[in-house]
Amino acid sequence: MQMEDIFFTPLQGTVRTPMMFEGIGAHSGCSVQLVIKPAAENTGILFVRTDLPETHNIIPAHRHYVSSTTLCTTLSNESS
What we know:
By secondary structure, the chain is mainly β. 8% of the residues lie in helices and 29% in strands. The chain has one helix at 3-8; strands at residues 19-24, 31-36, 46-48, 58-60, 66-68, 74-75. The chain has a two-stranded antiparallel sheet with strand order 1-2. A two-stranded antiparallel sheet has the order 3-4. Strands 5-6 form a two-stranded antiparallel ribbon. Strand 5 and strand 6 form a beta hairpin. It is globular. 0% of the residues are buried.
């Protein structure tokens, strides 16, 4: 493998089993729950909002979905 191949090789990985975390939201102070689930190859990281209807509740972790960077990074889609 050549040096330039290292930078263009997509590194992928996923968790084996779902993991759940509960706690208090850093900015909201509300009780929150985070579930991390295994994903299929080439899926990427997806955030699924459970407070929205199932249509348009998925937001990919991608720069095109960044709507704000004031004090934190906010991801949004057309529904949020």
